[in-house]
Amino acid sequence: MKKWFAAVLLAALVLTGCGPKQPEAHEAQLFAMDTLMSLRIWGMFDALRPDCLFSKIVEWRSTDLSQVKDPKEKKFIQEMKQIYRLRKSVDEQEKLDLIADALMGGGDLSKL
Questions:
Q1: Alpha carbon distance 3, 60 (integer Å)
Q2: How wide is the angle at C-alpha 71 spanned by C-alphas 70 and 74, nearest 5°?
Q3: Pairwise CA distance, residues 26 & 46, whole Å
Q4: pLDDT tens across 21-43, in order?
Q5: How far apart are CA 101 and CA 97, in angstroms?
Q6: pLDDT tens readout for residues 48-69
Q7: Rounded to whole angstroms, how far apart are CA atoms 58 and 68?
Q8: Exposure pattern of 66-91 as b/e (b: 16+ CB <10 Å)?
Q9: What is the pTM of this model?
Q10: Cα separation of 24 and 46, whole Å?
């Protein structure tokens, strides 16, 4: 009797949507080379636990600091954003420096 009751309870939970959440699909349509392409992409971030470091990094990087009221929390999030920022490659940084030098010195950008 207990096994039957457990099976009915499990079926009720599964049928009511209490099972694992399906990842949300993101859709886009692109038109290129006379072809219409429909893309559907599923993100797997929903499957990550909230205490996972990657989830926390994504949360810190996407936090709007103007909405954070607590000064200690704001300072912490600023530090985390700095630590986990996306760094530019050396080549990209060199190009940006050359552009900045050319713009500041009235140089020619056509050679860059």
A1: 45
A2: 85
A3: 13
A4: 555 666 778 777 778 888 777 66
A5: 6
A6: 777 888 888 888 888 899 999 9
A7: 16
A8: eeeeeeeeeeebeebeeeeeeeeeee
A9: 0.44
A10: 8
